[in-house]
Write a structure and sequence with these properties.
Elements (H helix, E strand, L loop, with lengths): L3 E9 L5 E6 L9 E2 L1 E4 L6 H13 L9 E8 L4 E9 L12 E6 L15 H11 L15 E8 L2 E8 L2 E7 L2 H7 L5 E5 L8 H6 L2 H7 L13 H4 L4 H12 L5 H19 L7 E3 L2 H9 L10 H11 L8 H11 L3 H18 L3 E4 L14 E4 L2
Amino acid sequence: MGFWHCNCIVVFDKNKEKLLFCKRAKNPYKGLLNFVGGKVEQEENSEHAAYRELFEETGISRRDIKLHRLMDMTYYQQQFVLEMYVGILEDDVPLIEEVNSLEWIRITDDFADSNRYAGDKNIAHIVEVAKMFDLSKEEDEQILDKGIFVGVDGCKGGWITALISNGELSLKKYSDFSKMVFDTTQFDGMLVDMVIGLPSNIEQYEKRPDGIARKIVKPRTSTVFAVPTRQAVYEFIKDKQKDANLSAIGKGLSEQTIAIIPKMREVDEFLLSNEEYMNVIRESHPEVCFARLNGEVLMTNKSEKEGITDRVQVLSRYLQGLSEEYVRTSAKKLGCKLDDILDAVCLVVTANLDAQGRTEIIPENPSTDDKGLKMQMVIPKR
C-alpha cells in the first residue's frame, strides 16, 4: 500500500504583506489556524489537486494565482506526504468560505504560537521558507495550457505515451504504435524516442543527427545508440541484420541497437503507410533534451534512484505536479520501467516547448532518407 498525499497552500495577498489561513472546524487542530488544503485523490495530478482544493475552500482560481511547489514533507511512520505549494494573488479576490472560516494574517505575526496555529510550530518554518521563495519565476519555465502534445517512448510490450492536454499531464500504454497515433489524432506536436529517417549508405549515415547529439551529451555519448541502416531494419534475423549493415556502411551493430530494430521498423512502416504523418511525427532523444533542460549533462543513471530524483527535479520546473511518487506509481500501474515514464514526459515537455518556439532542429538543415523522411532530432534550445 502506497503513501497517501495531502496538500497545503501558502497564499500571499497581492502586496505580500498577509497570508491566508483557515480556522479548523474539525480535528486535528480544531479551532486553530492552518493553511488551506486537502487530500490529493488517488491518481490525481498533484498540481491539479492543489488548484482544486484552493478553489473549493476559498474561491481562488487558476486565473487569480500561480502556484509553485514549495516543498514536500514525508511522514514515514504514518505513510503520508504533505505537499506544500505557495503563490501570490494577482489582485484582490473575494473569498468564498466552504467549511472553515478564512482569515488574512500579517506576515509579521508569531506563527510559532501553538495556542493559535496548528502544526506544532511547523507553520513558522513553512512561512519563513515561503517568504524566501522566488515568486517571480519566469512564465517561460511553464508549459502551454492550450493544445495537445505527446511524448512517446518504447517500452517492453509496446509504447508509453505522455500527453499534455490543456496543461494537464496523463500517461498511457499502447501495444501498437498505430493505435497510439490514431487515438491522439488531434495532437499539436508529437515527439518519439525512436529513429526516424533510416540511412541506406554511409553518406546518409553521416548526415544523421546522432553525431551532434553525442557532442551535446559528452561524456555520456553511449546513451546515443548507433543507428542501423534501412537494409538492416528490414532483415528479421540477427546475423542477416549485421551482414546487411556491414555491407551498406561497413559498420557492425550493437546488441542494444538490434534489440530495438523491431520498434524502428514499426514506426517506419507506419509513417510510410500514413504519409500525412511523415515529418509531422518527429524524432527526439530524452538524454539530449534533459541536458538542454538542465543546462548541463545529467551524469546520473536514470535507472537508479539518484538519476530518477535528478530528472524529476528537472521536469518539475515545467510540470509542478510531477513527483517521484507519481512516476513510481505510474510505472507500476502501466507495467513499465521508471525511465520509460521519465523519457516520455521529457519528450512531451519538449513538444510543448516546440510550440513556444523554444526548440531547435539538429542538424540545422536536415537531409532526408530514401523514403523522404527527414533525419533530424527536435531538442530544446540552449
